[in-house]
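Incident log, support desk, overnight shift.

02:14 A customer reports that sequence design results differ from what the structure should imply. Their input is reproduced verbatim below. On-call engineer (initials T.W.) acknowledged and began investigating.
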């Protein structure tokens, strides 16, 4: 599958998990959509003070950039300057 298909699957999974957990708990999830300055963004969803869960979170992020961070290339210098993409 390509990245767009994986992203669609993960967003649908987040939707389904939140719907099922909310149905069991009775409390709604509150969503905070965010953007990453270097590229990408995500959705953080939190349920608080429910009947079953004191607090629960189901999050999605998709980040990308033109160059990998120094922490990722410190032990693999051949990756310096390469682009990256990650989601989950």
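02:41 Re-run completed on a clean worker. Output:
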């Amino acid at each position: 599958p390509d990245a767009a298909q994986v992203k669609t699957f993960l967003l649908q999974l987040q939707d389904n998990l939140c719907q099922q957990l909310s149905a069991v708990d009775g409390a709604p999830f509150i969503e905070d959509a965010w953007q990453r300055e270097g590229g990408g963004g995500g959705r953080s969803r939190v349920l608080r003070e429910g009947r079953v869960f004191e607090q629960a979170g189901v999050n999605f992020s998709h980040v990308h950039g033109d160059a990998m961070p120094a922490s990722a290339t410190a032990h693999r210098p051949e990756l310096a300057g390469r682009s990256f993409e990650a989601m989950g």
